[in-house]
Amino acid sequence: MKLLSIALLLFSGSLYGQMLAPGNYRWQIQRNDGQAIIFNTKVLEDGKRFLLINGADSLLVENISSKEDSIYIELPFYESAFMVKSDAAHNLQGEWIKSSAGVPVLRMPVIAEYGNRTRFPASKKTRYNVTGEWATTFTDEKKESKAGGEFVQNGNYITGTFRTPYGDYRFLQGIVSGDSISLSGFDGSMALLFKGKIYRKKIVGKMYSRNSDALDWHSDKGKVDLPDNLTKIKPDAGKVSFTFPDTDGNPVSINDDRYKNKVVVLQIMGSWCPNCLDEMQFIIDNYKRYEAMGVEFIALAYERTDNFSESQKALQPFLKKFDIPYPILIPPVSVADEHKTEKTIPQIDNIVAFPTTIFINISGYIVKVHNGFDGPATGIHFTRYKEEFEQTLKALSAQ
Q1: 128: nearest Cα among 194, 38, 221, 223
Q2: With 80 as the cut, is the pLDDT of residue 13 above it?
Q3: Under 8 Å CB-to-CB from 321, ≥6 apart: which residues?
Q4: Quick one: pLDDT band at residue 142, thresholds 50, 70, 90?
C-alpha cells in the first residue's frame, strides 16, 4: 500500500509537470456571433509558466494547477482565469472565467491550438501602410466617442493601440492583408478585436469585446486632440484632507508629517484597471528621481467592493507585482458608488477616469488634475506624458 501511494504521488507529479506542453499556443476566445478574440502564449520549458504575448508586451503567468480533470490557469491580475482540458495533441479547450469581487460574472468558451504562433494569417500582400496617427470615432446606437489610433506597420505585421480620454487600449497586435486590417489584444481584463477595411486615408470596421454588441469604428489619417481635464477642481475647494487605512489596515492621513510642506501626487486607481498598472510601473521606475525633488506619492484604490477585507485581498496581486515605496490606501467606498468622489475627495467635481492623477502643492491645494494615462503602447504620447509629468513636478517643487 505504501509503495502504491508513492507510485501514485510520483505519477501525479509527472502529470502536473506535463500539463502544458512547452511551446507556442494560439488562443481564441469565442464570441456568440462567431468572432474570436485571438492572442498568443508561449509556455516555458518547465510547463508550469507561460508568457501572455501582445506585441512588445509579455505578462508572466505562474499560477497553473490541476483541478479535477482540468487545468486551472489563474492570471496575475483582474480576477481572470482559464479552466481548460488538454487533448493528446496538447490542444486546449474550456472556458475563460472573469470574476468581480470574487463572483464569476462572465464565462466564454476558449480553444488553444498547440504549436501555432500565428495571430492572424496574412494571405495577401499589403496594399497600404497605416503607420501613423488616425483620428478615430467609435459609434453605437446611443453615442459616439473619440479616440486616437496609433499604428506601426512593418510589412504585413502591425502593432499599436487606441488612445481615449480615459486611457489607452494597451498593446494590440495584428496584420494588414490586402486592404484589410485585423488587430487584437488580451491581458486578462481587456479582450479586444478590431477588424476593418482600408481606403487609403480612411479605415472602416467593427470592434468586438467580450460578448457585448460590436461597435462601428472609422478612422481618418491624422491627429486628434483628446481632453485630459474632464475632472474639474471645484472653486474655493479648500485644502485636501483625508484619512484612510493602508493595505495593512493602518490609518494614513495626508495631514501626516510625511506630507507637510511637500508636493504630493495623488493616484486614483484600482487593481482591476489595466492602465493603472501601467501608470504604477511608470511612477515606480522614476520614483527615486521624484523623491529627490521632494515629492511624495499616495495612491487611493477604489475597488469593486466597499468591504475593506475584500478590497485588501483584491490588491494582493498588485502588491506582489510591484515593490511600491509609498502607501496605497483603501477608501470605504466601491468604484461603482455614484458618490465616491464627494465622500473621499470633495475638492474635485467627479472622478471619470481610472487612473486619474491629482497634483497637490506644498500648501495642500489641488492645482492640476489629469484624467487617463497614455501608456507605453502609445509611443510618442507616452514620451510626451512623461515629459509633462516631470515638468509639472519641477514647477511645483520650485515653488
Answers
A1: 221
A2: no
A3: 76, 77, 277
A4: confident
